[in-house]
Amino acid sequence: MPKLRVALAQINPRLGDLSFNSALIRAFVSDAHLTGADLIAFPEMALTGYPIEDLARRPDFLRSTRSALDSLAANLSADSLGHIPVIVGLPTGPVSAAPHAPNPHAIAHNSAAVLQNGRVIGIYHKQHLPNYSVFDEYRNFVPGDATCIVHVAGVDVGLLICEDVWRDHGPIEQLKSAHPGTVIVINGSPFERDKDDVRIPLIARRAQEFDAPIAYVNLVGGQDDLVFDGDSFIVSAGGKVVARAGQFQEHLLVAELDVRANRFFDRGAVNRLTLIETDPVVHETAWATSAQQQIFAEQPALKQIWDALVLGLRDYVDKNGFPGVVLGMSGGIDSAVCAALAVDALGSERVLGISMPSRYSSEHSRSDAYDSCERLGIEVRTEPIADLVAPVETQLHLDGLSAENLQARIRGLILMSVSNAEGHLVLSTGNKTEIAVGYSTIYGDSVGGFAPIKDVPKMLVWELARWRNDVALGRGVTPPIPPNSITKPPSAELRPGQTDQDSLPPYDVLDAILEGYIVQHLSLEELVNKGFDRETVTHIIALVKRAEWKRRQGAIGPKISEMAFGRDRRLPITNAT
Predict the structure, then answer these.
(1) From the candidates 148, 162, 338, 373, which is the catalytic residue?
(2) Which of 99, 404, 427, 556 stands the most exposed, by the fewest C-beta atoms within 10 Å?
């Protein structure tokens, strides 16, 4: 039985930075060459980053991308790497919209190019365009209509792009009739909790259907509110995982696969088949033992979530050129967790904490804020707000809720002023539960350019805090989150003796109601039938609806769930339902 050495390059591109991405691809091809790989595959949109959104509708961007592709092919040849077939994801165009295109104004394909010997020897266009959740590919791409086979080292290699492998018809059925020796799937699949519970079984089933190994290569890195986890893998023809990359890190995964030899099938009998013939690959190096068949273990769920939040934050800060971040340190659980995430992402020297006590701030909140900063080794400044609040409160005769909101807005003013003066990105520390019910002050504690725990419900914030402290204890170092921040009742401390539960149900109940209403789309009656109090559910649903306008103005944050606020959940603000 023939063997095929496959390299999967799990890379973290910078969206739109064609020079950086091309250099990254060249470096990974060089590493793959040292392993004696027969071919190397890069993820979906590796040359540009993903998702490119409406950049796909700019002819100048598409022409620049094609120019970068041609230069990449030539440079690989100049690097003495041109003999290796290289599969690279990118947008191609501009093209005239096909009659079957979902959007007649789309001018680009989502494509995979095959490079060898200094030139582009073939291109495959994605056929199934996802238009759900965070994906808007109907808007920006023209679907392809031809199945693709790349003939490499005597083996027919089927080529698919992400959504193509999820659908039972189209390229899947066409490839089955071609009996490929193996299949390569290039992907831009964002992280979600428990996604591998679906993704790996699907690919395993497809491998059994093809009776051929499948290699699945995925992007890694943060892009705005999306985080790509990598987690590339290869399954055998029997559906067993035989190689797997690590999550949330760049990685070159190499495996030597037992594959079926080309059967010389009747190519004319396969409907709309594109055949890409590569030149024979002559290896000058032996198989690198160190690169063989790595299988990284799946990480515990809380570690995956923490790593996703860290990577999303790091890449947003670094890719946008911020020197560091600043956040308000209240002594509460949310700011403590956000600060710990920031230090894990950026290092303590790039994180600035600001304590902004008011006349209502308890002594333990002040001490907890300082304890958090000391544990993390970050700079902390104190900016009391009482003297700033008093004149505005007096002049406008504010009391009650308006006076409480004023305190939060003064704090937001301080954070944004420091940001303007020193260039730091302000982190908004609100969690998903508070954002859902509008438990925040617009232009106050909601200010910021990035919200690290925006998609993290309150109960999960506590779980993550305890998990992160346990990790520190296991390493023999100081836990980063003060125990008192974890155990004390949460409070905004905008009036004497205030706690969150003055106006909200217990967080375990609240999170369960929100999960049912927002994620599962359950109605009031369905939630009541599940045992929740009718009055409580009615109140929470009203709060969620009323807060839509706030959510539209909030900072973005890393998506970790199947239903995050922002791209996933799109509802009208003016809404009488």
Answers:
(1) 162
(2) 99
